[in-house]
Amino acid sequence: MKITETSIRDAYRIHPELHPDRRGRFHEAFRAGELSAAIGYPFVVGQANYSVSVKNTLRGIHGTTLPPGQAKLVTCVRGAVMDVAVDLRVGSPTFGAYEVTYQDEDSGVAVYLADGLGHAFLALTDDACMNYLCSEEYVPGTMIMVDPLDPDIGIPWNLTDPPVMSDKDAGGLSLKDAASSGLLPTYDECLAHYAALRAASPS
């Protein structure tokens, strides 16, 4: 697999090597050693989630407070989505910036998002299924919800109809309000967190 860092530091795009034959296709979606080497510390899976969405569903922008944090490896395993990583780390050189990745079941492309980064996606097909491998178990009350339609972020969703959203997502804070409320982690806090993960890893 090919792992490359995106324009947002600590967000990575993973392109697997596909092996088609007369039976269908096979690919390795995740190797702990390769991903951990790329990000600089071990990625340990603490929880796995799936979401299934109708076309034009918009989920996110979701982040997690630090602590506990929750890094994610997200993959579209059925259908197609427009996947977006957003830097929610206050003080980061790319704070508020986004990176778009088109994911679908045929490509197997995945995105890794470190603690402090937000995630959102738009379902481009009906029955779009996303798999999330998370570094930590979900802790109620730690989710951060930022408005995916915030004009200050300016994600080009190219919507032709109002998106299907949960009440919580529709009521997400603007990036400015989320930052001023103290909900968002700082860049320095995240860097210290990554350093602690590196220090705790076996040599």
Quick overview:
The protein is α+β, with helices and mostly antiparallel strands.
**β-sheet strand percentage:** 35-45%
> Main β-sheet, in a few words?
6 strands, antiparallel
Class of secondary structure makeup: alpha+beta
Instruction: Sketch the topology as an H/E string, one letter per element.
Output: EEEEHEEEEEEEEEHHH
Arithmetic mean pLDDT: 96
Query: Could you give the distance between the termini?
Result: 24 Å
Overall morphology: globular
From the alpha carbons, calculate the radius of gyration and give it in angstroms.
17 Å
**SS summary, helix count:** 4
The main sheet orders its strands as 1-2-10-7-12-5
User: What share of the residues lie within helices?
Assistant: 10-25%
Number of strands: 13
Low-confidence stretches: none
Topology summary:
Blueprint: E1 2-5, E2 11-15, E3 19-21, E4 24-26, H1 32-39, E5 47-53, E6 58-64, E7 72-78, E8 80-87, E9 98-104, E10 110-113, E11 117-123, E12 128-134, E13 143-145, H2 167-170, H3 175-180, H4 187-200
Antiparallel strand pairs: 1-2, 2-10, 3-4, 5-12, 6-11, 6-13, 7-10, 7-12, 8-9, 8-11
Question: How does this model look, in words?
Answer:
This protein is α+β, with helices and mostly antiparallel strands. The chain is built from four helices and 13 strands. The strands form three sheets. Strands 1-2-10-7-12-5 form a six-stranded antiparallel β-sheet, with helices on one face. A five-stranded antiparallel β-sheet has the order 9-8-11-6-13, with no helix packed on it. A two-stranded antiparallel sheet has the order 3-4. The protein is globular. The two termini are 24 Å apart. The model has no long low-confidence stretch (mean pLDDT 96).
